[in-house]
Write a structure and sequence with these properties.
The structure is a homodimer. Chain A is mainly alpha-helical. Helix content of chain A is 77%, strand content 1%. Chain A has a single domain (4-323), classed as Farnesyl Diphosphate Synthase, CATH 1.10.600.10. Chain A contains 15 helices and two strands. In chain A, a hairpin with a 2-residue loop joins strand 1 and strand 2 (98-99). Chains A, B: InterPro entries: Isoprenoid_synthase_dom_sf, Polyprenyl_synt, Polyprenyl_synt_CS.
C-alpha cells in the first residue's frame, strides 16, 4: 500500500521550490495583506494543486524551471482565496488546525485579502503571457464561483441526488485540480491529446478528493485532519454519505436523517446518531467505493502515458487519496 | 454651466448599447446568481466606466462596434463586484437607493456573486484576446483590492493626511476609471502617447469623482443621492473634509472632531455638529477646490487631443463632476 512518507519523499524537491515561489509572489506593499495571506498560505497546506501542475508538465516531457514553479503557485493562491471567502461562507471554526481567518480579523478584511490573492493569481497568469492558460483560468474561476453558490443554495436541499452532488463538487473542487493538470500540459506545449487527458485526470482526481473529504467529515478524527469533524453535519450540508444513505433508507430512517441534518441545534449525540444511521445503510463504505471508482478512472487515464517515475508518482498520489486520513 | 440633461442626451445612444451588452454578458446558468447580479447591475448605475472606455476609444479615432461595448461592460462588472464586496465591508444600509444586497441575501451569497461578476469581467478580457488589456486589468484589480484594505485599515487613523487619502482613493476609485480610459486607447490601437494621456485623464477624473463623492456624503441630500448621508461619518471614515478641517482647526476643535468621528454612537445631532465644525474651517469649500483642481488637470490632458464632439463630451463629463449632486 502506498504510504504518505513514500510520497512526501518523492515530492520533497518540488515542494521546496513551490514553497519558495509561494513566498516570492504574493507580496503586497500593505503589510496587513501579507499577514493575512501568510496565515492562510502557510498553515500546512498540501500544495496539491501546484504540485499537479508541475508533475503534469513533467509527465509531458517538460523539465520544470523557475517559471513553471512561479506559474504553479497561482493555483494555490486561487485555492487560498476560495478558502478565505469560504471562511465567511462556512463559518468553520477551524481551518487546517488554526483559527479561521475571519475570527482573527473579521469578515471584511478576510474578503478583501481573498480578492487580493485572486488578483495575484490572475496577474501571474497574465505575466506568463499565454492565452491558453488564461482561457483555462478564467473559465475555471467562473465555474468555481458558481459552484460555491450552488453549494450554498443546496444547503437545505435534502432531495439533492448523486448527479446534483457531482455537479456541485465538480465546480467546487474538481475544476481547479483539472485546470492545474491541464495548464501543466499547456506549459509543456502539448496542446492536444495530452492536454485533454490531463484535464480529465485532474477532474477525476478532484471528484475522488472531494468525496473523500466529505467522507472524512463524518469518519475522520479532528486531531488528524485539523478540521472540525461534523462540520457539514452542523451546517446541514448535503453530501454523498447522506445521499447514499437516504437512497436506501426506510421511510422512517430517511425522515429521521433529514430531521437530524436540518436540526438547528446539532449536538455530538445527534452527530453520533446520524453516523449510526448512515452506517446502518453502509453509506460510508459506499461513499468510499465511489471515491475508488474515480481514482480508477484517473489511473486509466495515466495508462495512456509511457511509464516513468513521474507517472508512477502521480499514480501513487491518486491511490493515496483513498487511504489518506487528512 | 453644463447640465445633466445635456450630457444624458449626448450619451444616450452609447448608453443604450452598453445596457444591452450588460444584459448579454453576465448570465449564469444558476438563476440565483442572475437575480443578485441583476439587483446590483440594474439599480440605476451611471455606467461611467464603460462609457469612459467607449468615449476614449472614439476620441482615438476608433468607431465603436459591438465588440467595444462588450469589452466596456467588464468595467461595470468589476465595479459591481467591488460594490458587492463593499456592501459587506461597509455595512451600508442603502446602495443606490435600494436595500443593500447583503440585507436581502446574506453576506455569503453576496460575496460569491461578487466573485462570479469578477470572474465574468476577467473572462471578457480574456475573450478579447489582447494581452495589453489583460495587463491593465490585472494590475488594476490588484491595486483595487489593496485600496479597499488600506481604507479599512485607515478607518480610525485620524492622522491620515492628504497624501495618504489620495493613495487610498487612487486605489479605490481612480485606478479603475484610469484603466477604462487606457483600455479605450488600447482598443483603438493607440498604444503610445494617447494611451498614456488617457490613462492620466481617467486617473484625474477618478480623484475628482471620489473627492466629490466624499464631499456629498456630508453635504448631499439622501433623497437625491439615493445613499445615506453621513455614512462615512457613522463609520468613522477619514475623508478629505475631515483632513482639511483638522489641518486648520484649533487644538480644541480638532480634538472634538476626532471625538465625534470616533464616537461609537453617531446621532444626527453629532453629525450636525461635525458639519458645523467643518464649515467653520471652510472644509467643504476647500474640498471642492481640490476636486476642481483635478478636473482642471483632466481638462488640460484633453487639450492634447484635437477638438471633436467626443472631446467636447468628455470635457462636459469632467466638468459635471463638480456640479453633480448624485
Amino acid at each position: 500500500m502506498v504510504t504518505k512518507e513514500e510520497i512526501l519523499k518523492a515530492i520533497a524537491p518540488d515542494l521546496e521550490k513551490i514553497e519558495t515561489a509561494l513566498q516570492q509572489n504574493f507580496q503586497s506593499y500593505v503589510p496587513f495583506v501579507n499577514e493575512v495571506s501568510r496565515h492562510i498560505l502557510f498553515a500546512g497546506g498540501k500544495r496539491l494543486r501546484p504540485l499537479l501542475m508541475v508533475l503534469s508538465a513533467r509527465l509531458c516531457g517538460k523539465e520544470t524551471d523557475p517559471r513553471a514553479y512561479r506559474l504553479s503557485v497561482l493555483f494555490e493562491y486561487l485555492h487560498a482565496a476560495t478558502l478565505l471567502h469560504d471562511d465567511v461562507v462556512d463559518q468553520a471554526e477551524f481551518r487546517r488546525g488554526r483559527k479561521a481567518a475571519h475570527h482573527l480579523w473579521g469578515n471584511q478584511a478576510v474578503i478583501l485579502v481573498g480578492d487580493f490573492l485572486y488578483s495575484r493569481a490572475i496577474r501571474i497568469a497574465v505575466e506568463e503571457g499565454n492565452m491558453d492558460v488564461l482561457d483555462v483560468i478564467s473559465r475555471t474561476t467562473t465555474l468555481m464561483s458558481e459552484g460555491e453558490i450552488l453549494q450554498l443554495l443546496n444547503l437545505d436541499n435534502f432531495s439533492l441526488d448523486e448527479d446534483g452532488y457531482y455537479e456541485v463538487i465538480y465546480r467546487k473542487t474538481a475544476v481547479l485540480l483539472s485546470a492545474a493538470c491541464e495548464v501543466g500540459a499547456i506549459y509543456a506545449e502539448r496542446n492536444h491529446t495530452e492536454r485533454e487527458l490531463l484535464k480529465k485526470f485532474g477532474e477525476y482526481l478532484g471528484y475522488a478528493f472531494q468525496i473523500t473529504d466529505d467522507l472524512l467529515d463524518y469518519t475522520g478524527a479532528s486531531k488528524e485532519t485539523g478540521k472540525d469533524v461534523g462540520t457539514d453535519f452542523k451546517e446541514g450540508k448535503v453530501t454523498l454519505p447522506f445521499i447514499l444513505a437516504a437512497a436506501e433508507a426506510s421511510y422512517e430512517d430517511r425522515k429521521r436523517l433529514v430531521e437530524l441534518l436540518r436540526d438547528g441545534e446539532p449536538t455530538p449525540q445527534k452527530f453520533e446518531e446520524t453516523c449510526q444511521l448512515m452506517a446502518k445503510y453502509r453509506a460510508f463504505e459506499k461513499t468510499k467505493e465511489k471515491a475508488r471508482f474515480f481514482v480508477e478512472k484517473a489511473l486509466e487515464i495515466l495508462a495512456n502515458f509511457e511509464e516513468s517515475p513521474t507517472r508512477n508518482l502521480l499514480e501513487k498520489i491518486a491511490q493515496f487519496i483513498l487511504v489518506r486520513k487528512v
